[in-house]
Amino acid sequence: MIHTIIDSPIGPLTLVRGDWGITGVFMPDHRPAPDDAAFGARDDSAFADAVQQFGEYWAGERRAFDLPLDPAGSPFQQRVWQALRTIPYGETRTYGWIAASLGQPTAVRAVGLANSRNPISIVVPCHRVVGSTGKLIGYAGGVERKRFLLDHERGAGLGGMGLGGSGLDSVA
C-alpha cells in the first residue's frame, strides 16, 4: 500500500492505493476512522491520474471517476458500492432504492451499513444516498461535507456553502 494527501474544498483527502487500484479515499474526521498505519509509505508520484480527476471534479468538469478501484469488503458490500456508482451525478437515491435495486427490498439497514463502510468516498458516491424522506443522514465525513458535495454537484458552486468556521469552505 501507498498513499498521498491532496487538497480539496472539503479539506485534505488521503488517497490509498494497493497493487490493483485505489483502496481508500478518506476525509479529515472520517468515521469510522481508517487505520492510517495500513496506508503504507507516502508516494505522491503514483497518484497523477487521481489528482487530475479530482481536480476536474472540483472544477465541475468531471461527473464520474475512471480510476482502477480495489475496495475491500464483503460480497454484499461490493454489490452496494457498485449500485452507488449508478447514481447519476447531481442526483440522490434512498437506501430503500438501493436495496430494491439489489433485489433485496427489505435489506435497507444492511444497505445503510454497507454504505457507511464505503472506503472510497466521493469516487464511489455514497454522499448521493439520503433517507427515505430526502433528509441528509449519515456520512463518514460529516453531514456538512455531504451537503457540500451534493450542492457542488447540483451546480451551487464551491463558495458560500454555509460551512462557517469548519474550514471546509476554502481549498486547503
From the helix content, strand content and strand pairing, which structural class follows?
alpha/beta
Number of helices: 5
Morphology: globular
Average pLDDT for all residues: 88
The gyration radius over C-alpha positions equals 15 Å
Q: How many extended strands?
A: 6
Strand content: 5-15%
Query: Any low-confidence stretches, pLDDT <50, length ≥5?
Result: 158-172
> What does the main sheet amount to?
4 strands, mixed
Strand order of the largest sheet: 3-2-1-4
Cα distance, first to last residue?
25 Å
Query: What letter string, H or E per element, gives the SSE order?
Result: EEEEHHEHHEH
List the main descriptive attributes of the protein structure presented here.
single chain; 172 residues; alpha/beta; four-stranded mixed beta sheet; two-stranded parallel sheet; 6 strands; 28% helix; globular; disordered C terminus
In short:
Helix content is 28%, strand content 12%.
Explain what this protein looks like in three dimensions.
The protein has a four-stranded mixed sheet, with no helix packed on it. The protein has a two-stranded parallel ribbon with strand order 5-6. The protein is built from five helices and six strands; from the N terminus they run ββββααβααβα. The model is unreliable at 158-172 (pLDDT under 50). Helix 3 (95-101) crosses helix 4. The longest helix is centred in the N-terminal third of the chain and has 11 residues, at 48-58. The protein is of the alpha/beta class and 172 residues long. Strand 1 and strand 2 form a beta hairpin. The radius of gyration is 15 Å and the shape is globular. Helix content is 28%, strand content 12%.
